[in-house]
Amino acid sequence: MERQIVECVPNFSEGRDKKVIKQITDVIEAVDGVRLLDVDPGEATNRTVVTFVGSPEAVAEAAFRAVEKAGEVIDMRQHHGAHPRIGATDVLPIVPVSGITLEECAEIARKLAKRIADELAIPCYCYEEAAFKPERRNLAVCRKGEYEAIAERITDPAEAPDFGARPMDERIARTGCTVVGARDFLIAVNFNLNTTSTRRANAVAFDVREKGRPEREGNPITGKIKLDAEGRKIMRPGTLKATKAIGWYIEEYGIAQVSMNITNIGVTPLHKAFDEVCRCAALRGLRVTGTEIVGLVPERTLLDAGRHYLRLQHRSTGIPKEDIIKIAVKSLGLDDLRPFEPQEKVIEYLLDAENCSEKRLTAMPVKGFADETARESPAPGGGSVSAYMGALGAALGTMVANLSAHKAGWDDRWEDFSNVADKGMRLQEALLHLVDEDTDAFNGIMNALSMPKGSDEEKRLRAEALEAATLTAARVPLETMRRACEVFEICREMAANGNPASASDAGVGALAARSAVLGAGLNVKINAAGLADKEQAAELVAEANRLVAEAIKAEAEVLDIVNEKIK
Fold first, then answer.
1. Structural domains in the chain?
2. DSSP letter string, 378-422
3. Is residue 438 annotated as a catalytic residue, yes or no?
4. What is the pLDDT of residues 103-122, one digit of tens each?
5. Looking at 75, 83, 416, 422, which residue is catalytic?
6. Which residues of 442-469 are buried (b: 16+ CB within 10 A; e: fewer)?
7. The one catalytic residue among 184, 436, 438, 440
8. pTM
9. How far apart are CA 398 and CA 291, in angstroms?
C-alpha cells in the first residue's frame, strides 16, 4: 500500500521572539516520524508559519503538542500584529501529500480539533474541507472579528466554536481559539518569460488567474472600468480555476515572470497551468522558457506532469518513476534557471533521505542484496527473495509491454500497451515493497521473542505479541502470493499479443512469478504452523494452496503460448 504522508502548516501568533518560536518547533521535531521543513517568521505580522510533514498519526501528534506549547508561551492579551488572528495557534491546516485523500485529512482535522478542545481547553473552529457548516469553509468567517470578538461570539449559538464553546475565561483569554481544517496542497510557482516587461507578464497573469481582470468599456486596456449596481468592479474570469497570479520582474534573473499560487492541484494541476500560461503567452507574442517551483511539491505533481507529456507523445507511461520525473523536468523547463534536484524539491524524497539510516533491501545493489541473503543471519530469507522474484516477473512483463508500445508499425496500439505497462509497474512497486516488509515481519517475531517472560503478566504480553507478529509474518507472504499471481495476466497478454521478438521474456516473467508464488507459499505455511489460533492457521494455508494451484495452471498457459511463438 502507498505510504500515507500529510503536511501541516500551522500559523502561530508570534513572529518576533525567536526563543518562543524555537520552543514550539522543538516539540514538533521531538515527534518520531515528523520532519520540520520550514519556519517562516514575520516581524510586521508578528506571525510565524511552520511547515512539517510525516505520517498522519505523527503529524497529528506533533500538531497537538505544538498547539499545547503555543498556548503556554504565547499570551494573546499581549499580541499585536498586522495579520488577522484569533489565537496563539491561529490556523492549523492538514494537507494531503501522498497515499491519503482530502476527505481523510478532514477527518483527521476534526478529531484533532476535538482533542485540542477536550484536553487543552482551547476552543476550535473547523474550516475548509473539515467545516461542519458550509459558511465555515471560509477561514475569514471562522476568524470574524478576530481575537477581540471571541468573548461576544463564543456563547452565541450561531457563532460559537465547533468544539470547546464556553463563556470567556482566563484560559481562553490567554490562548484564544484555533481554526483547524483540511485543504489541498498549495503550489507556489513562477513561469519564466522571454521578456523584461512586467506589464506584459501581468497581462498573461490576468488572462489565466481565476479572478481574471476588470471589464472595460471600449478599449480593453485603456477603457473605463465597468462597475455593477453596487459600484464594484465587474470582473472577467481567467481561464484557470483555483489560481492566483501576478506578473513581476526579477532583477536577479533579468526576466519577467508570471508568479502563481495554485490553491487546488486537483482542479488545476501544475502541467495544466504551465500549458495554459504557454498558450496565453504565445497569443501575446511571448514564450515561456521554463518554470521555477517555490518550496516543495508532492511526488504526484511531477508524476502527473510527466505522464501528461508522455501521453501527448503517444509514449508508454508504464516506466520507472525516475524516468517519468525526468520527462516532467524537461517538459516544464524546471532546470531553466538552475539545476533541478528532485531529491531536494519532492517531499517524499526528503523524508526518505531523513530515514536513510535504516538500510532497506531494495536500496541495495543486486550484488549487495545477494550477499546480504547469503550471510548467516536468517533475514532476508525466502520470503524476501520470493517477493523479489515476483517483482522481476512483473518487470519482464512490463518490459515487453514497453517494447511493444514503441515498436515501429504498432503506433496505433501504444495506449493499450501503455495500460499493461502501468499495471506492471504498480505490481513491481508493490512486490518490491513486500521485499522489505517480509524482513520487517521476521524482525517483529524476533522482537516478540526477546520480550521478558518472568511474571504471568509478562508471559501473557509476550504470547500476545508473538501471536500478532507470527500472524503478520504469515500474511505478508500471502500478499506476495496474491500480487505475484496478478503478474501472470501481464505475461500472458504480452506472450500472446506483444512484440514477438520478446515472447521468451514474457515466459521468463511467468517462471519468476510461479517461483514467487510457490516460495512465498512455503513461508505462509511455516509461519501459520506457529500460530496458536489453529482455525486461522488453516484458513491461511488453504488460501496459500489455492494460490499455488492457480499459479501452476497460469504458468503452464503462458509457457504454451510462448513455446508456440518461438518454434
1. 5-182 (3.30.990.10), 187-351 (3.30.70.670), 358-565 (1.20.120.680)
2. S-S-HHHHHHHHHHHHHHHHHHHHHHHHT-TT-GGGHHHHHHHHH
3. yes
4. 999 999 999 999 999 999 99
5. 83
6. bebbeebeeeeeeeeeeeeebeebbbeb
7. 438
8. 0.84
9. 32
